[in-house]
Amino acid sequence: YPWRRRPETQLSEFNLTEIEAMLGAYTKVLFVRDPFQRLISMFMQGMGSSPSFSSFVQDVLDSGQHKASMAWKPLVSLCQPCLVQYDYVVMFGFLRQELGHLLRQAGLPVDSLLPEFTDTQVQWTYSWLSEQMFSELSLQQKKQLSHFYRWDLAAFPFSSSFLSD
């Protein structure tokens, strides 16, 4: 449906027949990341004017799920994994392994296309950062965040997430 495509075209702008045809014709890949790590990343990138991580989290919680920024909105509400049958779900932290598999499945040469990933270093850094940032939050904020991202935590295997506890 190239005549209806613009860079910002959303799937909801098409009718059901067009949506079914597109979803059936494409390989669907969903990239997911621990919601708490997404929050840390957004805070570190300066998304928001909060001076501390705790106040940033409070701003996110105060915005609510319906008015939340796309940057920290729960993935389930953005990607509809219960409605769209994704062919691949790629977890942040396992990019090299999972993208290699994805490229092999597509019949593409793996070694020449994949950049050098440092998954282990990234995982260690985010683990350390998560501990530090999580300790800044009040018990109430921790509970509210777990509730805010409850569907993401249920839909994806974020077993090491600080919000899973």
TrEMBL record:
Q: What is its main location?
A: Golgi
Q: Per the record, a Pfam family?
A: Sulfotransfer_2
The alphabetized list of GO BP terms reads: carbohydrate biosynthetic process; dermatan sulfate proteoglycan metabolic process
- Check the record and name the SUPFAM superfamilies matching this protein: P-loop containing nucleoside triphosphate hydrolases
Q: Name one GO molecular function term.
A: sulfotransferase activity
Tell where it localizes: Golgi apparatus membrane
Q: What is this protein called?
A: Carbohydrate sulfotransferase
Give the species.
Ciconia maguari
